[in-house]
């Protein structure tokens, strides 16, 4: 199971401003992954004395838990594995219909009283990454 975004996702999906937002938000903890652009490499936070040195310097390769926490403040996402009944429900409720696939992960977020966002991907981490990017845009 995929548990973090990849370097490729970070670089291709998030623009420089969004990456700067993630740098500012991230409070490194031992075991977190981050991207070191100097070496084009993923690193793991290891030593306690490293924590202060890397804050604001590197972009986190966000985990499922970090993205749930990050998106939860503004989007209050509902996370579910898509079933046939949910496909029927979302097709009836949304115009144009939202593309959902059975057994994929979906993140449903209420932006306003009338607007819902739904992000659907095969992997939970990818659906959460789409929701995270949406938060970073606003």
Could you give a quick summary of the protein structure above?
The protein is α+β, with helices and mostly antiparallel strands. 42% of the residues lie in helices and 19% in strands.
**Whole-angstrom Rg:** 16 Å
Gross geometry: elongated
Main sheet: strand order: 2-1-3
The termini sit apart by 29 Å
The chain-level mean pLDDT equals: 85
Approximately how much beta-strand content do the residues carry?
A: 15-25%
Following the backbone from N to C, one meets helices and strands in this order, namely: HHEEHEHEHEEH
- Outline the low-pLDDT stretches: none
Helix content percent band: 40-55%
Q: Characterize the main sheet.
A: 3 strands, antiparallel
Query: What is the count of DSSP helices, taking H or I runs of 4+ residues?
Result: 6
Derived structural class: alpha+beta
Question: Topology, pairings included?
Answer:
Elements: H1 7-13, H2 16-25, E1 33-36, E2 41-44, H3 50-54, E3 59-60, H4 64-75, E4 78-81, H5 84-93, E5 105-110, E6 116-121, H6 124-137
Antiparallel strand pairs: 1-2, 1-3, 4-5, 5-6
Helix pairs in contact: 4-6
Task: Explain this structure.
With 138 residues, the protein is α+β, with helices and mostly antiparallel strands. Helix content is 42%, strand content 19%. The chain is built from six helices and six strands, in the order ααββαβαβαββα. A three-stranded antiparallel sheet has the order 2-1-3. A three-stranded antiparallel sheet has the order 4-5-6, covered by helices on one side. α4 packs across α6. The longest helix is centred in the C-terminal third of the chain and has 14 residues, at 124-137. The radius of gyration is 16 Å and the shape is elongated. The model has no long low-confidence stretch (mean pLDDT 85).
């Amino acid at each position: 199971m995929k548990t973090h975004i990849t370097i490729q996702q970070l670089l291709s999906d998030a623009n420089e401003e969004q990456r700067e937002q993630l740098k500012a938000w991230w409070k490194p903890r031992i075991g977190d992954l981050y991207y070191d652009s100097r070496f084009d490499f993923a690193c793991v936070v290891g030593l306690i004395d490293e924590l202060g040195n890397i804050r604001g310097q590197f972009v986190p390769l966000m985990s499922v838990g970090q993205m749930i926490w990050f998106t939860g403040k503004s989007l209050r996402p509902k996370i579910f594995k898509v079933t046939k009944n949910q496909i029927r429900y979302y097709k009836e409720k949304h115009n144009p219909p939202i593309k959902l696939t059975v057994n994929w992960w979906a993140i449903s977020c209420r932006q306003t009283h009338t607007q819902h966002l739904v992000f659907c991907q095969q992997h939970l981490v990818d659906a959460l990454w789409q929701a995270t990017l949406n938060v970073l845009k606003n």
